[in-house]
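Colleagues,

For the teaching module next term, I've prepared a clean inverse folding example: a structure given as tokens, and then the sequence designed for it. I'd like students to try predicting residues themselves before seeing the answer, so please don't circulate the second half yet.
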């Protein structure tokens, strides 16, 4: 069980993806209270956003597409990416208003947690709180793109530029910082937003809009991996490009 007095747990899930909600329910520690974005009155499904359009969401999109050898940058945003970022933002907003726990854990519904994740997470937080390593963001799992830096805490590293936001934890200060970036005025993929907050982003335009402002750490080895896309699919990738 993940202690709700210590950690408020959220799962990003689309209302139509009952199958994925059921899948992760069976893999979360028994007894863990969880808040699902599929229960929010917020439009987060890329398919719905494509039908209704961006205008009614009260957001603005970052000018994402640039000329680049990186195929993820050299294309428009996808509606699913917009919806995913809105879903993460909805978790932060809900936690700010409804939770008093010192930490907020956000999982996507394809996160594959290691056995005894609750106790291992508590132990890791205890080690950190007894150390001199500050942090606002703590990855349980991610896809590393740039080298990490060791820390003084066993099993914890300082992450380099990384992708994937399927399992991370925010402190209350990290939550406050994430909510004061004006992200709704410049929506970008959540996988690019989080690393921009702790390390200079490879894209100059992203560095200017979202300069580093928090301290990040990561479990190594990770406490979570991601379900195989061949098994789970991808609700972000399996959506249209904005404007198409």
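(Answer key — instructors only)
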């Amino acid at each position: 069980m993940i202690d709700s007095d210590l950690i408020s747990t959220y799962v990003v899930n689309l209302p139509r993806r009952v199958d994925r909600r059921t899948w992760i329910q069976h893999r979360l520690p028994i007894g863990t209270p969880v808040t699902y974005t599929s229960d929010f009155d917020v439009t987060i499904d890329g398919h719905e956003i494509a039908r209704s359009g961006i205008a009614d969401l009260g957001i603005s999109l970052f000018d994402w597409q640039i000329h680049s050898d990186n195929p993820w940058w050299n294309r428009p945003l996808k509606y699913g990416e917009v919806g995913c970022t809105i879903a993460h933002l909805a978790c932060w907003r809900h936690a700010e208003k409804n939770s008093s726990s010192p930490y907020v854990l956000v999982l996507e519904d394809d996160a594959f947690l290691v056995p005894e994740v609750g106790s291992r997470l508590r132990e890791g937080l205890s080690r950190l709180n007894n150390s001199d390593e500050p942090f606002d963001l703590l990855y349980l799992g991610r896809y590393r793109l740039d080298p990490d830096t060791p820390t003084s805490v066993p099993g914890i590293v300082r992450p380099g530029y990384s992708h994937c936001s399927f399992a991370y934890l925010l402190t209350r200060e990290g939550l406050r910082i994430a909510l004061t970036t004006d992200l709704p005025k410049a929506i970008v993929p959540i996988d690019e937003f989080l690393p921009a907050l702790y390390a200079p982003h490879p894209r100059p335009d992203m560095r200017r809009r979202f300069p580093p402002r928090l301290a990040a750490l990561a479990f190594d080895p990770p406490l979570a991996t991601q379900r195989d896309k061949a098994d789970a699919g991808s609700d972000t990738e399996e959506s249209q490009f904005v404007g198409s």
